[in-house]
User: Fold this.
Amino acid sequence: MAKDALIPPSVSVTGDEQDLFSRGGYSTLEGTVEHMQVPRMTTVRDTEVPILGVWIKSGSRILKVSLWWDQALTELQINDKINICHLRANATDSKFNSAVHTTVEVLEQGPVVEDIIVIDLSEANGEVSSHEYTTCPELLEGSPEQLLWQLLFIWKL
Assistant:
């Protein structure tokens, strides 16, 4: 009883519930980080507070979660499997907000996926030009020459 007063219960949700944003109380959400915003600062009662927007795939839905205060400083990456406990549903904006009791736990770190940047320098008629191509790592198969031909073919279309 006293524990519930200090740390209220948080109900696990799958993300597929019809009453997800209207049920009230605290929710616990488990899923995979699909997208993140760059952390930003906002002012709350004359105090600068960090906030981080995260989109979590839970069940068949992608849900927006706004992490405030210390939770906004949690180191997360795309594809991390996470569990966020004690979220408040915001029915007006159809998203979740962190609260005083919110905790964020990384259950499994996702693979780090970084873009590949290829810089092409060429000289023609005494002038040097450069082109920068960015692609996903899935194209990195075969030799560097094959990769360059693939990149040139894709960006010339």
